[in-house]
Amino acid sequence: MSILPAASTFPAEPFLERRGAMRVAGDWAHAALLDPATRFLLARGTTHLMQLEPAATIAFVDAQHADLANIDESRLILLGWFRGNRCVLVELPGDGTDAPPPGTRYEELRPLLGLLQEDEARLLAYSRALLVWRERHRYCGVCGAATTPRSAGHVLVCTRASCGASFFPRIDPAVIVLVTDGPLALLGRQASWPPGRYSALAGFVEPGESLEEAVAREVEEETGVRVVSARYFASQPWPFPASLMLGFHATGARGALRLDDELEDARWFRSDELRAAPDGLLPPRHTIARRLIEEWLRHEDGASA
Asked: 114: which of 25, 145, 158, 191 is 20 to 30 A away, CA to CA?
């Protein structure tokens, strides 16, 4: 089961109604706390309150929960309407010592990969990205004064009247590319990955650079392979901490590999090797890297039929 959408589709299927216009209502937090149908998602740091048995799921609470008593509204973030109900992220103090309700505990998102229903996984990815952004922008990047949330937690504004700079949630674009040459696909591995794991090549887009330029640069920097052509495949949010993975299929000119210090190894794999790959060689199924590989294999199957 996917934790995050591994590929964009058209028309896109939203996992929640964001209702951005509701963020500017001055009484939004008061209305949320008074509505018995509001579902609150509790977070401490980048962990979320989860129920793990009999299956992993978000442990939503209502406004009567003890942690919401006298909550400062600056700690509330309106996420939107999830499964038909208003959903609010609660950024609890990270030093809290109160025991969570029985059967629940605070968990990081990454270990839950592949376990959650897709819509809950996407909600947590959205939440985690906002939490990381807020933590890293507590102070103004222009003058150094403290920031305060506005627009239901989606804007941070400098509190110094003479400055007043506004900061919005950031996303770091990164390309991830499967390079192929006929029946061969180029995969690399980093030393920190599980033994035997290989994946598509990836890297961040630099300022002033197009996505296509980033694809060509990253592949050549990491492996020495020159990209001949590239086409966009799909995207996947990856909130570790704030990436948007932009997937590409590319054709490369095969030759001797020249590795940089980011990769421990890289090699060309035959399509039949990847079809018969043992568990652990390919990236997890919830990742866009895996989708890039599987889509290429399907194309190869069609071409050889």
From this structure: 191
H or E element in which residue 43 lies = strand 39-44
pLDDT of residue 300: 85
Burial of 109 (0-12, 13-18, 19+ CB in 10 A): buried
Which pair of structure tokens corresponds to residue 62?
A: 């209502």
Residue 298 makes CB contacts below 8 A (sequence gap 6+) with none
**Residue 226 Cα to chain centre, angstroms:** 29
Residue 24: strand pairing partners: none
| Distance, CA of 187 to CA of 139 (rounded, Å) | 41
Strands 172-181 and 243-253: parallel
Q: Is the peptide bond before 194 cis (omega within 30 degrees of 0)?
A: no
Predicted local distance difference test score (pLDDT) of residue 285: 87
CA atoms of 226 and 218, how far apart (whole Å):
10
Helices (H), 142-267: 211-223
DSSP β-bridge partners for residue 236: 245
Here the tokens at position 67 are 């942690």
Q: Are 41 and 49 in contact (CB under 8 A)?
A: yes
Q: Could you tell me which of 296, 203, 193, 186 has the C-alpha nearest to residue 252?
A: 186
For 264-290, how does the pLDDT look when each residue is reduced to its tens digit (9 = 90+)?
A: 999 999 999 999 998 889 999 889 999
Please tell me the predicted confidence (pLDDT) of residue 40. 98
Tell me the β-bridge partners of 187: 267
- Give me the pLDDT at residue 195, please: 94
Q: Which of 68, 7, 9, 15 is closest to 41 using CA atoms?
A: 68
Element holding 227 (H helix, E strand): strand 226-238
Question: Any residues with CB less than 8 A from the CB of 277 and at least 6 apart, and which?
Answer: none
Domains of the chain: 20-136 (3.90.79), 142-170 (no CATH), 172-304 (3.90.79.10)
